[in-house]
Amino acid sequence: MHERLIHGYAETIDAFLTQSWPLSTSRDDIIWVLQNSSFIQTQARTVETQDLRLIKKLINTIPTGKKRAYRLALDGVLFYLRSACQWQVPEKIESAINDANNKWFEDIAKGSAQAQRIFSHYTCKKENVIKTRAPLTPCFMVLVLGYDVAPLSLSHITAILNNPNSITDEDSYPRLQINHITPGLDEPRFTHYHLPVMSYRLLKSYYAHSLEPISTKALCTRLTQYLHTHGLPKTNKFLWPKLFQISWYLRFKLPPIFIRDLAYPERHISYPKNIIPPTLKTDVIYAIDWKENWFDSLSLSSEKINWRHTKLLKNIQNPNIVATPALDATNILPRLLFDFTKDYIIHGGPQKSTLAKGTIVTYTALKKVLKPYPLSYSEAISEQGVNKWAKTVYDSIHSNNVKATFYRFLRFLSYQEHTDTLDLSSFSSPLAPPSVSPARLNADECDLLIKSLINNQTNHPLRSLFCAIAALLGFYAMLRRGEVLRLRRKDIRFKPKTGLITITVTNTSEGNTKSNTTRKVYTTLPKQYRQLFTFLFKIKKNTTREQPLLGFEGEKYHSRQLYYLLPVSRALRFLFGSHLNFHHLRHSGVHIFMLQTLHCVSYTPDEQRGKTPLAREVLSSKSVAERFNYWLEGRAVCEVNEAIFLDQMGLQIGHIHYSTTRWSYLHDIDWLLPIVSRAHAPNISHKYTHSELRYLLGLNPQSNDLSRILIRLSPEYASQTLKQKQSQHVQLCDDTIRKFIFGKKSETKQSLFSNEHGLAWKDTLLDSDNTLLGFIFNNMIKDNAMAIDAVSFIWDKGGKHHIKPVHKKQRTALNNLPPVVLSDDGQSLQITLACNKKNANAFTTAFRHSDWGWLTSKFVLSVNRKTNNEQKKTLLKKLFTQKNETISLIKHPIGKTKLTILLTPKKQLPPCVLEYTLSFIQSIQFQKDKI
Q1: Which residues contact 229 (CB under 8 A, 6 or more apart)?
Q2: DSSP string of 530-544, one letter each residue
Q3: Residues near 307 by Cβ (< 8 Å), separated by ≥ 6?
Q4: What share of the chain is helix, strand, coil (3-state, %, to 5)?
Q5: Residue 58 to residues 52, 308, 396, 435, 764: CA-CA distances in angstroms?
Q6: N or C: which end of the chain has fewer CB within 10 A?
Q7: Confidence at residue 579, expressed as pLDDT on a 0 to 100 scale
């Protein structure tokens, strides 16, 4: 590793350890450890026992007291790698890290008396400031932010005080945005915090004075003077956050792990700022823009590759005049580089919305890098294939600048529908937190997704059902895309009455789990989706238990991915933005799981668990109890150790450590305090003085309007006597105050009945009634005669997913043919007609189509023995039959020549299949008669 990088990471590690490690080391010692540790050079984020043995052996050769210093620095580096960078370390080191975390709490507890003295002073000071409207000083604002917002470091507090844009402008719920203090980031990271309404007012007033920016060092000096002036014990820059932390623990009774989450914004990451709005149209969701032969062994085109992004660079002022190149099945990189270049031209970069031409040229100069390593369509949609390709290209680059350029390209690919399984953590520095793609949906947004998937018109009777089920499994069961695709019929159990779904996520013949281990997932499904699962299990009732849950029998893995998961990703992008893909449903489900758990252990009343009926159902105590019943076994929550809930969550998610869940899935932290702290709960009343309420509501200190406003806000206040109103504190909840200050936020209305999604899907089956496969499937559903193996056979031998209605020419041809009937033995469809050119053309138009590929044709020519039959035989072979089809010749003594065509399934199918097929044909042939 380059010396400059080592020094930069040493600075980051030193800053992290100073804040969160109870022991002390030096930056020079950290640098020595980084320079002499072999495991630092790997991308695996794993410290093996052998690696530790080597570095410890080297340390033991040092004869001076530096030996102890380097050992301590090694412990600190390991603590940083495990805690901040998600490294896997030996069990012995894990135990030492747990001991260090316990010591951290003991360390901050020592300052409890000092923290309480400063807090008591702050309480009196705040009361006086609010009453007298005294000027707000930086020192007072440090206490506001540290005691009332979060137990932050002085560095973070300084950054907040210097940045008036730290308060977000969301309606009814402004939050505090805190930028991460981490050097070497390729784009800014930040975290949103809950902002109490009083802190909001104070911070707004502070910003209004347009005070001069202040440095952390100058702020420390002022704080020291402030404490001395008010007779309070002095402290230093590094002790301040510890005083805040112990105060939060004592006042709000929060678990230490949540105290640390609040103390370090860098433990969470928020959504990207520059979210590109959706460009897809609704009719693209189910579009098929690939060909089946793209997954065969294709040889590279001999034609010269046209890298059309260069034309974009020549037309930066008007990029839309350059036609978008089509996807080449053998190499999609020219198209991806074109899209990458156009994205820079139109949307700019993460820092600036408009980039200079020279910058765009530099950022897209990848043709020479990519040319030797083509990426086929089939490799691009394969998680293993695209990641192997990316690593091959990355390893072939020797320039750090070019690697940085290629990494930007990879980051772009991770948001594209064909390559969104790309794992960027393999290309980020192992000494920094792993890359993460932060985004999630709430329950009502997921409902909108399901509705869009079901209502989007498709002729495919099963595709929309499989897509909706895949999305629900990703969201509510927190499954990765590969886990959804590999899920077999035997791996899932469903109880329609309670909505409980039990899933076994395990290795299968199609692939292994990410950790190569088996886990159980327990989740509950809201009522409005249960009928969808009931339909699915009814359809799959007679399938073999080894078959995948989603898809037709025998359908290949890549086909299921393209036809059932890709539409979900497209719908996500269409509805919510181009930064979303299927994996973000897992992010969303993990967040829902966390909210369920926190509400459960916080005993939140059911009516306060969410803003909409669906959210309240998902988060209800009944739903959570059902989900955890495998572990609670009927016990109340108060009868078990609440600390184990996070461990139980980890087992279901597939994470050994909560830190992995927190960093990769629990984006932001503004949602935490309103659930786990009664002092921050939106619906719990708190006592306010008249001075506090005048300040909160933006009134003058002596305003008489307060009483008029309170009569509207509080029925209790309105019923009091004048003396009581003047002398007593007023009880109001946070939600009431926010609605008055910021206005009432419009809430999402849920009009769906408990079974509407299932009925909506069933209604869509009518759209596929004018297709052969749809007609057969719908009648099987109607008659309770489902045979998914037969449907799968017809699908496989027919047009597969290219299911289209019978077009006009086919209808005309069928109407020009004699009626189709069942053969005497019931094993074939039978047509008896004259052997002539007109009928040959009609038969070809009607039946020589992929939809009928599951039937084989047999021709029986019955001729008068007195006539010359050669002409008819020649016409039959030339116009009717195809290769390998059977022709039989029968002679009869009297009567005209006639041709009988038998259409027989290529394998034995249930009798109802031919009956439904005949009904489908007759519905077309007899349509004129019906009219």
Answers
A1: none
A2: HHHHHHHHHHTTTS-
A3: 334, 337, 338, 367
A4: 55, 10, 35
A5: 10, 55, 33, 32, 70
A6: C
A7: 87
Among candidate residues 332, 356, 329, the one with its CA nearest the CA of residue 345? 356
**Contact criterion met (CB below 8 Å) for 219 and 300:** no
Residue 822 pLDDT exceeds 70 = yes
Q: How confident is the model at residue 375 (pLDDT cuts 50, 70, 90)?
A: very high
Q: How far apart are CA 689 and CA 727, in angstroms?
A: 9
Tokens representing 608 are 């306060």
Indicate whether 813 pLDDT > 90: yes
Q: What are phi and psi of 621, to 5 degrees?
A: -60, -35
Q: Can you tell me the distance from the alpha carbon of 456 to that of 476, in angstroms, rounded to the nearest whole number?
A: 22
What confidence tier does 743 reach under pLDDT thresholds 50, 70, 90? Answer: confident
List, for residues 650-676, the tens digit of each pLDDT value: 999 999 888 889 999 999 999 999 999
Token code pair at residue 625: 């109890």
Q: Which of 834, 858, 787 is nearest to 540 (CA)?
A: 787
H/E stretch holding 100 reads helix 91-109
Crossing angle (nearest 10°) for helices 66-85 and 3-20: 80
Say how far apart CA 688 and CA 733 lie, in whole Å: 10
Residues with Cβ within 8 Å of residue 364, at least 6 apart in sequence: 309, 313, 337, 340, 341, 344
Spatial contact of 837 and 874, defined as CB atoms under 8 Å apart: no
Would the pTM of this model clear 0.85, i.e. be above it? yes
User: What is the distance between the alpha carbons of residues 825 and 349, in angstroms, rounded to a whole number?
Assistant: 70
Q: Which residues pair with 522 in a beta bridge?
A: 502
770 Cα distance to chain centroid: 36
Token pair of 386 as six digits: 């695209």
Give per-residue burial for 832-856: e unless 16+ CB within 10 Å, then b: ebebeeebbebbebbbebebbebbb
Rounded CA-CA distance 868/866 in Å is: 7
Dist. CA 466–CA 464, nearest whole Å: 6
Burial class of residue 644 in the structure, from the number of CB atoms within 10 Å of its CB (0-12 exposed, 13-18 middle, 19+ buried): exposed
Name residues whose C-beta falls within 8 Å of residue 605's C-beta, 6 or more positions apart in sequence.
Answer: 683
pLDDT one-digit tens code per residue, 38-48: 888 887 889 99
**Residue 750 near residue 614 (C-beta atoms within 8 A):** yes
CA angle centred on 37, ends 34 and 40, rounded to 5°: 70
DSSP code per residue over 337-402:
HHHHHHHHHHH--SS-SS--HHHHHHHT--HHHHTTS---HHHHT-HHHHHHHHHHHHHH---HHH
CA distance 672 to 670: 6
Query: Residues with Cβ < 8 Å from 305, sequence gap 6 or more?
Result: 328, 331, 334, 371
Per-residue pLDDT, averaged over 885-895, amounts to 84
What pLDDT, on the 0 to 100 scale, is given for residue 171? 64
Nearest to 93 by CA among 156, 46, 138: 46
Amino acid at 161: L
The Cα–Cα gap between 537 and 540 comes to 5
Length of the chain: 931
- Gap between the Cα atoms of 686 and 683, Å rounded: 9
Contact 767/456 with Cβ under 8 angstroms?
Answer: no
The whole-number average pLDDT for the span 724-735 is 87
In angstroms, the CA 519 to CA 776 distance is 38
**pLDDT tens-place string over residues 478-533:** 999 999 999 999 999 999 999 999 999 999 999 999 889 999 999 999 999 999 99
The CA distance from 150 to 673, in Å, is: 10
What residue type is assigned to position 36 of the chain? N
Cα torsion through 158, 163, 166, 171, rounded to 10: 150
Q: Residue type at 803?
A: I
Confidence of residue 276 (pLDDT cuts 50, 70, 90): low
Q: Closest Cα to residue 899, out of 825, 818, 807, 794?
A: 818
**Which tokens in the block code for residue 635?**
């016990």
Strands (E), 564-661: none
**Other CB atoms within 10 Å distance of the CB of residue 907:** 11
